[in-house]
Design goal:
The longest helix has 16 residues. The two termini are 21 Å apart. Helix 9 packs across helix 10. The protein has a 6-stranded mixed beta sheet, sandwiched between helices. It is of the alpha/beta class. The protein is built from 10 helices and 12 strands. The protein is globular. Bound molecules: 2'-monophosphoadenosine-5'-diphosphate. 2'-monophosphoadenosine-5'-diphosphate binds next to helix 5.
Amino acid sequence: MNGRFSIKGTTQILCLIGHPVAHSFSPIMHNPALQELELDYVYTAFDVPPRNLEKAVEGLKALNIKGCNVTIPHKEAIIPFLDEIDPLAAKIGAINTIKNDNGTLIAKNTDSIGGKKALKEAGCTISKQKIAVIGAGGASRALNFTLAEEAREIVIFNRTVSRGKNLAKELQNKMEIKARGLSLEQKILKKELEGADILINTTPVGMYPKVDNSPISKDLLHEDLFVFDIVYNPSKTKLLKDAKSVGCDTLGGLDMLVYQGALGFKWWTGHKPNTTLMKKALKKHLGI
Ligand code: ATR
């Protein structure tokens, strides 16, 4: 904390609600950015078990909390308690950011928009591309629905094939994009990756401490692929290292984490945060 920062009677509250929240990164990246801009806000985290979720949402209004991030396990369950859901978030079926607009709680999914922004800022073209996505969980849903606005085709590879197939069906119906769900078998991946432009890992495979794991073997990668791994610890996963050695352009998960936060920050405060500072704070915290 710098010398100018102090909590006063006027200080507004931003927060995270989730269960658990003790290891959350949101306070780590938001507070330095708020302090740098000398904004009279503080960002904190509340551990809300599912049985208290509705009361916690009422509390956001009662305490006039200005903005809120929502994390596991509440991203879907919170929707019925909110006043307005952005159309993209409604399609995804999950939200992660709420703004308290004079007592009206409005929600978005900035994982989704933040992930696309991170890809674009890294120089990745999405328009008319064939995208291969590993995983069909919440993070995959958030990314797929926004990428489907521009991509040509999406192929989802998931350990539980039915989950990937269901997501592909939803993408076809709601986003009118060619989408398929396939099994996460190396032989099938090999065939599909030959014609793909972007490969995204949305699973936790390769995440600390199992840093020698990768969701796919190196020989399936080719230099025309842009490889995005949403895992941010380590910052260079085995998948990204393999991809780099083959000649691919790559992107790790830290930028998506920062951009999803930065989008909420701007929405709540009206000010653009210093994303370099946010990233630096996260790296320091992660020791990377
Ligand atoms: P998140 O919200 O982070 O996306 P999630 O909804 O639990 O988390 O989804 C995790 C995704 O990673 C799923 O696609 C999961 O596959 P299943 O649907 O088969 O469970 C995938 N996943 C997790 N561990 C995995 C592993 N060891 N190998 C392959 N896929 C894995």
